[in-house]
């Protein structure tokens, strides 16, 4: 007969999990997230992505009244200066990137919403989700009317449908929509 020694090693491993942002302050982690998002945006954009992205950001920066940061000038100079901010962490470039963050988020959201959502820069519903909400609310109105719902229930469903449609085009369009509805009701 053979003897086997068996040692029960069932203690958990004591390997410490280290986050890539563990040593960073909250602001530095936010800037690292912006840097990673811009790099992903760069990879997702076909063609001469760096020129394209830096020009979009520079135009938006100038349109919002931004000054300095050496983003005005030649296409090459703008690209070099912008991507120096992205690729070189440090107090000077962190300060510049902090100033540019709202512009980067706005431009990235318009140009590549998927990347902006992936890095948590954009929250809320996507355009497709807003369309689906609008369709659902419209069908709720039709269903309530077909089933002979009381007027208060029907009014509630209609108002929810209107709100869903306003969210579809943006709340800033509300006054224009109401002006057109008022004109249509006046003509009827």
Query: Structural class of the helices, strands and pairings?
Result: mainly alpha
Q: List the total number of helices.
A: 8
Main pleated-sheet profile? none
Strand content: under 5%
Helical amount among residues, as a percent range? Answer: 55-70%
For the CA atoms, what is the radius of gyration? 27 Å
Distance between the termini: 102 Å
**Mean pLDDT score, rounded?**
85
Tell the overall outline. Answer: flat
Tell me how many strands there are.
0
Query: Helix and strand string, N-terminal first?
Result: HHHHHHHH
Low-confidence stretches: none
Give the total of domains.
2
Features of the shown structure:
mainly alpha, 0% strand, 188 residues
Descriptive overview:
This protein has 8 helices and no strands. It has 188 residues and is mainly alpha-helical. The chain has 2 domains: 26-118, no CATH class; 127-187, no CATH class. The longest helix has 21 residues, at 91-111. The mean pLDDT is 85. This is Toxin YdaT domain-containing protein. InterPro entries: YdaT-like_sf.
């Amino acid at each position: 007969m053979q003897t086997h020694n068996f040692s029960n090693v069932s203690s958990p491993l004591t390997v410490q999990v280290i986050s890539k942002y563990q040593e960073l302050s909250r602001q530095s982690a936010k800037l690292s997230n912006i840097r990673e998002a811009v790099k992903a945006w760069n990879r997702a954009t076909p063609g001469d992505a760096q020129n394209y992205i830096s020009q979009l950001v520079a135009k938006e920066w100038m349109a919002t009244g931004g000054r300095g940061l050496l983003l005005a000038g030649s296409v090459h100079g703008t690209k070099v200066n912008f991507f120096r901010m992205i690729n070189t962490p440090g107090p000077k470039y962190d300060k510049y990137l902090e100033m540019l963050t709202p512009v980067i988020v706005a431009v990235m959201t318009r140009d590549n919403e998927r990347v902006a959502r992936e890095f948590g820069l954009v929250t809320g519903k996507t355009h497709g989700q807003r369309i689906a909400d609008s369709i659902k609310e419209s069908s709720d109105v039709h269903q309530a009317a077909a089933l002979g719902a009381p007027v208060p229930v029907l009014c509630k469903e209609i108002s929810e449908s209107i709100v869903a449609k306003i969210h579809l085009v943006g709340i800033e369009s509300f006054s224009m929509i109401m002006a057109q509805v008022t004109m249509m009701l006046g003509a009827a």
